């Protein structure tokens, strides 16, 4: 492991199945995992930012793309890499237009997810 600091991944998804499955996998891989069912919680972070945000596009009452735009517009938080996920494969471009650093369509292979996370967190190291 190149860094002595354990990397933190925050999962913002209102599907408990995704949060549990992905959270367990990430913890197994050595990441610290935080999660929320509300994307707006990410905007309330004051410090102790995650090394990466795994953000679902469709959450109850919230559009992850709006959350991403607000996050990237924040001078302090804009450096947090955002990996957006969605069950809609054709939404990739709008996710990227909203400022996402990468996109992954659900259902996804864990190896694809891990590869994207490793690439995005390496940039912020």
From TrEMBL:
Residues 8-121 form the Response regulatory domain. The keyword Phosphoprotein applies. The modification 4-aspartylphosphate is found at residue 56. GO terms for biological process: phosphorelay signal transduction system. It comes from Mucilaginibacter limnophilus. CDD domains: REC. Keywords: Phosphoprotein. InterPro entries: Bact_response_regulator (IPR050595), CheY-like_superfamily (IPR011006), Sig_transdc_resp-reg_receiver (IPR001789). It comes from the Bacteria. SUPFAM superfamilies: CheY-like. This is Response regulator transcription factor.
